[in-house]
UniProtKB/TrEMBL annotation, chain A:
Biased composition, class Basic and acidic residues, residue ranges: 545-563, 670-686
Entry superkingdom: Eukaryota
Assigned GO CC terms: nucleus
Region (Disordered): 1-45, 343-371, 416-441, 532-567, 649-713
Name under which the protein is recorded: G patch domain-containing protein 1
From TrEMBL, chain B:
Protein name as annotated: WD40 repeat-like protein
Species of provenance: Periconia macrospinosa
Keywords: Cytoplasm, Repeat, WD repeat
GO cellular component, as recorded: catalytic step 2 spliceosome; cytoplasm
PROSITE patterns given in the database record: WD_REPEATS_2, WD_REPEATS_REGION
One GO biological process term: mRNA splicing, via spliceosome
One Pfam family recorded for the sequence: WD40
Localization annotation: Cytoplasm
Lineage: Eukaryota, Fungi, Dikarya, Ascomycota, Pezizomycotina
Amino acid sequence: MAFKRPRANSPTSSQKRTRGNGQTGYVLLGTELPPDKDSDDGTFVPEWKQTVTDERGRRRLHGAFTGGFSAGYFNTVGSKEGWAPKAFVSSRSNRKTTDTAQRAEDFMDAEDLAEAAESRELETAQSFATIGRVGEQETDGFFGLFMTEEETMGVKIAHKMGWRRNQGVGRKIRRGVRLDDDEDSMSSAHMFAPSDSRVLSAAPQDINRKGLGFQSEARLGANEEKETKDRPMLALPFLDAPKKQPTKKIASKKSSFGVGVLNDTGSDDEDPYELGPKITFNKTLGKDKKAKKPSKFAKPGAGDKHVFVKKAAGKAAPRSTFDGKPPLRGFVLTIQSVDLTTKRKYPPPKIPPGWKSTKSNVPVSTGDDYTSVTDAAKASTLDAKGRASLLGETPLPGKSVFDFLSKEARDRLANLTGKKDLPQGLGQTAPEGYSSSEKKQPKDLWSFVPVLDKATAAAALSNGTTGWMPYSEDLKKRARYVAFLELRSGKKHELPERPTDMSISEWAKELEGFVQAAIAFRPATGLMASRFTSSTSSSHPGSGDVEKASETLLRKPEPKPEDPAEQAAKMGMYGAMTRQSFPFYPSRLLCKRFNVPPPPEVPHGSDYTSSEYGFKGKTEEPINRDAMNKIIHEAATRGNPMMQRPAWMNETEPPSGEVPPTKVPAAQVPRERVEQHAKVDVEKNEALSQERAAEDVFKSIFGDDDDDDDDDE
Amino acid sequence: MPSFPTTPIALLTGHTGPVHALAYSSGAASYILTGSADRSIRLYNPSKAPLAAAQNTTDLGLVNKYSAHGYEVLSLCVNDNNDLFISTGGDKTVFLWDVVTAQTVRRFSGHSGRVNRGVFGGESDSVVVSASFDGSVRIWDCRSNSHKPIMVLDEAKDSVTDVVALDGEIVSGSVDGRVRTYDLRRGICEVDVMGHPVTSLEVSKKGTEILVSCLDSTVRLMDRANGQLLKAYRDEAFVNTELRVRSTLGMNDSVVVSGSDDGMVFAWDLLGGECLHRFKHSERRAVNSKSSNTPRVKKDIVSAVAFCKSRREWTSAGGDGNVVVWGMPR
């Protein structure tokens, strides 16, 4: 609040300051203080010199034209735009919630805030008023710090039961009034509460909060002594007795560098940092210092002279118990103090003479006398029976293998193994009920017969009856093959016969070969089977040429079935057979760069990552129906099938990839010819009715891939 | 049928190693870029290097030299504006060159094998498509500064030897004997099995046929629509079984020209399929005999042929480091 003291327009006479040192009646001493500009001492100041201040003494009117009130940035609030109170915005949809309630601070400017902050002062809560209380050194600093003054529950209950502070607990006793320790005034006896007994503090003595194995400095012993002396809560005075004895201070070996506060004995004469003998240096100027007086303090470890102050060994006077009562009847106070601190030490047990520790370094055993278990077992001459008798075992009721072995067999075994100590072969016959090993053999041989799918076996068998069958060069083998297939298709149940000159391993291998052959020469099923009819005329197994081809097929089985598209390409049958397609996903940026619309299935915004679009491609069906028809048709209309046979099937022709160049015009598939074929009547399939291409062509292309086609169906 | 240019009209010399790459400049096609195993690329003006004069002096008609490759140069491609070209080679990197300054503008690295072919693609040559020995085709963006390819087509099981970028399609040929056509519009890749390692691809002007060179000494013209064989071009003397030689279509897609393993150049009639001419590159003459009886020299190979799009002129380059321009007699 700006105020302006009303002043007279013209100076009154009293306000008129006398100019110069005209006063003769005064003697002026010293220098006159410079006139205080700011002080308003009531002297006349013309209006134009007066300043307007606010209540805090700050100038309120500025500038050339000082008639206005310049509130704003320069003397009121801290922003150029002026002070703006916090806005209160609340609408129907967006209610101002009450949790952001307006506080008084919202309407205060910096000045007010500073004032409010000044008026605030830090105080402790009432219950923690004990912090920093003086005169309680006994309680350990940190443990007392957080204890509140509140009374414990026990105290509260005792209060309710009539107990008062500083009273003892128990029946009231009648005694005289004690007034200021004046025991004599036994004027009248009243009932008084028993006097308070001191709390028996059972705090163990050795509590110190030092680390394990820490040996405190020897000099601290003096301090400890004082501590125990001052301990008021110590309720067992006899425990103090050993402490009272002056302990001999041992100079600490592990002394720290320098000197600590606790090590300072308070005498300035002693320089802990000085080196060497003390006499050598003279530390005073002028005159020689007098010889040192012995310090009144014992300075343990510092000097070579120890001054011991003899103390009374113990009080001779009979002491009372800690609560002032005489001891109970029948008990006597101990004079001897119990030394609880020093533990009794037991001497270590004596080691019996001749004892050796196992932990001590074992002398390395020499290789000669060391024998391993296996060596020892080898060295022993005992056989199993001998060991059993040695151990006292009853002999097993069964018989040994050697009981059944003939003598020759046993000798052969002994020769082979080099062991002469084998039991004698007794050559006994097998007991009753056990058939001979000859009859048992077939059952074991069943394990050699490989597993074959029943359907496959049946299919291969049926193929053999209608079409041709492998092993045409070896009829016996073929018979075995048929027998095997019959077994696996469930028609027979006997073991496949084994030639006498064939070992079991060879026989098992042959059976494995049968399985492969059955899988390989299973007829086409499904779609492919419906496309082909089995041959009746040309490819009879007896005819020489085809048998040769089949033999080559048999003898050199392809390690990996070749891609039919690859084979078709090598045969020059380009077109639908050699074409596959799979979806791929061009990145959108690529389509953008090529200015083409991206295919619809490309996920929007996705970019190319190889993991995402790696090999997602699905191969379409390699041969569709009309393509197949076209192939068959072409093959049928080209004339002699032997002419068309690819070169690799005919060893006489040079092994070039396609039809030799001389036959180019005939063998090529020009477009005009394809168009010619379009006129052929589709209803009547000449390919099936008239002439067929060589079966081997188709077999070589499609023969091994029946499985895939079946899967596709 | 117009006559085939059979007269050597210019000789471009200067390379010290076999020339593996040839490219006519776009537009008027008055310049020829050559890339060689001697790690350099040269720009020639063939009209300044007539055969008679060039036989005596080297570097005749040389316009510029481009050297940044550390390995052999295997392919070249000039863009439509004639201001940039691509070169690829054994350094697993695609180099994008500025023609005038002879500095590389961009280098696309990411292939893990030598880059067999690099072509411009996309609208206004905005991408570079490269085919590499590592079995992948990578498409690089010329417009952004990204060092990563836009896309990697790694379906090939073997080295990809050639790639063609068409309008909305990318065709790649691989040693695994397949020609893969990636149709960007349909999102379908069509695989045509050729049965033999593919070494060169060239698409006709119509875009419906593709000329495929295979390592069975056959050049085939395939119908791109259904993968059928339209024509196979062979000759008794034509040997191409182990080396990557280029084949090309020329004279408005009426002839097929291919180099060979033994230094011969063959020209076939596209429709008829009969061999029109045989040329001996090193002797710079046409050979009439059906079989070349000269002993085969190891370095004698014609690995690159290029047909001029605007004139009746074509170029062959081979193991001797010389480039022969064949044209009509003046």
